Amino acid sequence: MSTTEKTLAPAPTEAGAIASLADIAADQQRTPITPGEVFIVRDGDGGLRVIDTDAYAPTPRHIAAARSVSDAASFCAYIHRHGGPGTEVYAHTNTSKVVGILDSHPASTSDTAGWQKHRVSLDLEKTKAWLAWEKADGHLFAQDEFADFLDDRWSDVLEPDAGVLIDIATTFHAKTNVEFNGGVRLDSGDVKLTFEEKTTAKAGQKGDIEIPKKIKLGLKPYVGGPTYAIWAHFRYRLRGGQVLLGFKLERPENTLEAAFADIVTDIREGRKNGDEVVHEGIGEIPIFAGKPSA
């Protein structure tokens, strides 16, 4: 071999590299770490990397939770269970949502600031009855569809008597083979629809159907909330001998706002059913109008 020739070491393989690292690790003393602490280690590129071992500790360093409840009683119960000096509540009318921050900043500037990561939200759910009337609001039904709607929802009606609505539904079911000629508004405000039965054997029989001007509903907008009275005004259209019928709710947004305001009051003061306490309120915990930042 000439003096200019050198013996080259074989190129390292992946398996060899892993074996070398294993040998190095075996030679080094194992160093235990304390779960829950934060460590800084070299990242191999000349920089530093932060390693948080909080996930391995018996308990986390601070609470981070986002809970959702569906009624005021559950919201208050959660606040009572987990609330502290920094707890505060936000109520936002337009979204009908209440958010409690249980680890916010206490009122005193000398106290330690909170992480604001422990939250509970009241996500109100509309009742099936409210959703049914909300969906029908302003919609014009075909005759048989209108009759079916009255059949399904007569129990929501406070005025007139439920029997009146059932009779109207029954009449519309029976008079499917008729041609409507017009409608007359009576002195009471009710509407009389005139019709003529279609027949090829003899002259058609004429008749009329009276519909109330408006009906009074008893609806609970939100699950777990109180019931409110709201008026629904009768609507109809005649098109080519056919009649389209429906109702228009009277300012439903006002009822929803009132329902939300009453729920916020229930959160603050609690609710009673006579002498029976349904649930306790949150008392002196502040409630702010608005919503917290994300």
Provide an overview of this structure.
With 294 residues, the protein is an alpha+beta fold. The chain has helices spanning 14-27, 72-82, 128-136, 143-153, 162-174, 252-269, and strands at 38-42, 48-52, 65-69, 88-92, 97-101, 118-123, 157-159, 178-185, 191-197, 206-211, 214-219, 228-239, 242-249, 270-273, 276-280, 287-289. It has 3 domains: 34-63, no CATH class; 65-126 and 275-289, no CATH class; 128-256, no CATH class. The strands form 5 sheets. The protein has a 5-stranded mixed β-sheet with strand order 3-6-5-4-16, covered by helices on one side. It has a 4-stranded antiparallel β-sheet with strand order 7-11-12-13. A 3-stranded antiparallel β-sheet has the order 8-9-10, with no helix packed on it. Strand 11 and strand 12 form a beta hairpin.
Structural class: alpha+beta
Q: Averaging pLDDT over every residue, what do you get?
A: 82
Helix content: 25-40%
The strand count comes to 16
Q: Gap between N and C termini, in Å?
A: 74 Å
Q: Roughly how many Å is the radius of gyration?
A: 35 Å
Element-by-element helix/strand order: HEEEHEEEHHEHEEEEEEHEEE
Strand content: 25-35%
Number of helices: 6
Give the count of structural domains.
Answer: 3
Low-pLDDT residue intervals, each spanning 5 or more residues: 1-9
Outline type: elongated
Give the biggest beta sheet.
5 strands, mixed
Sheet with most strands: strand arrangement: 3-6-5-4-16
